[in-house]
Design brief:
The chain is an alpha/beta fold. Helices cover about 45% and strands about 15% of the residues. Helix 12 (about 245-255) runs antiparallel to helix 13.
Length: about 325
């Protein structure tokens, strides 16, 4: 039986069960992005007991070996394939449209990779969107996009060769707070000469609540070319006195870039110059505001900023209570 094993009957049964269960749930218990999805074709529901699955494959050990006895019951889930063809059942929080990490997760290949690999040759001009959460990738696939997920904000080393092997443009997709992860993704995949763009939005789950046309427009509006994103990130991120300067980090970027991207980076660096002292001053002001909000006395806060950035901020008009 092991030589002829197929997951299809099992996941078809669990998908039908998901659709039945979804129709009985109150709307407040399900994220709008899931409620309005066309088919939720990558969502499943694990039954109250494994008995119904054993009616399909009457072999308890085989079901366990293949990943169909995850240890949870009566729960929505998605399926993450392993490289060996076995599966992992990943619980889903329907209210937040997020995966629930249930023990260790095998991420030897990206979520959705097998499907993208099969269909990508027929859709040569389309990019592959790379998300952190597999639930986001599932909802993207439901809308017709090519999408995979990494299981976290930063790219696992094991995913690098798989994404490069797609030989397609890649788009890192996440929330705006994940700028460092996005920059790391771009520079890592560029070592394989992959073309990478970045889309960072205020809230990816809220974006997925839009109808198809405005959703696609928003993706395009937020998209930025990978090299440009990395240079902008280096120039504008907050720094500490002991860290690398902007010039040092840009120089390192050039020295580590492949020939394919070196010219592009050089052009961006030398033709879009900004005054780095403005960035340092902005970061110093931001730190000062954080320290004041944390109830640090104004004089102490100014001293901390001066030690870190070597900038003495003078405030011409400050409420007297700040000095107490």
């Amino acid at each position: 039986m092991a030589n002829t094993f197929s997951h299809s009957q099992l996941y078809n049964y669990c998908h039908d069960l998901f659709r039945d269960k979804l129709s009985t749930l109150e709307k407040k218990d399900v994220h709008p992005a899931i409620l309005q999805a066309k088919s939720n074709k990558l969502f499943y529901w694990y039954p109250a007991t494994p008995s119904s699955l054993l009616n399909i494959i009457d072999d308890n050990k085989l079901l366990s070996d293949k990943g169909w006895l995850p240890g949870f019951f009566n729960t929505p889930f998605i399926i993450w394939y392993k490289n060996n063809g076995n599966i992992q059942c990943i619980p889903v929080d329907l209210r937040t449209a997020s995966m629930v990490k249930n023990g260790s997760l095998n991420t030897d290949i990206p979520f959705g990779y097998r499907w993208v690999k099969v269909v990508s040759d027929k859709r040569k001009d389309e990019p592959v969107y790379v998300a952190a959460d597999p639930v986001v990738a599932s909802l993207m696939i439901d809308r017709g996009y090519l999408a995979v997920a990494m299981g976290g904000d930063f790219i696992p080393h094991a995913h690098e060769k798989h994404l490069a092997a797609l030989n397609k443009p890649l788009v890192y997709l996440n929330n705006k707070q994940r700028k460092d992860a996005a920059a790391k993704f771009v520079t890592t995949l560029q070592h394989y000469n992959c073309e990478v763009d970045v889309v960072l939005v205020d809230d990816m789950k809220s974006l997925l609540c839009l109808a198809d046309e405005p959703f696609n427009e928003e993706l395009k509006n937020y998209e930025i070319e990978g090299c440009e994103f990395v240079v902008n990130r280096i120039r504008t991120k907050r720094r500490i006195a002991e860290g690398m300067t902007i010039e040092e980090e840009l120089s390192r970027l050039l020295s580590h870039s492949t020939d394919h991207f070196h010219k592009r980076y050089k052009s961006l660096i030398y033709h879009q110059k900004i005054k780095t002292e403005y960035v340092d001053y902005a970061n110093a002001c931001y730190l000062l505001s954080e320290l004041i909000n944390a109830n640090m006395p104004l004089k102490d806060a100014i001293d901390v900023v001066k030690r870190r950035y070597n900038i003495n901020i003078k405030l011409s008009s400050v409420n007297d209570t700040l000095n107490t």
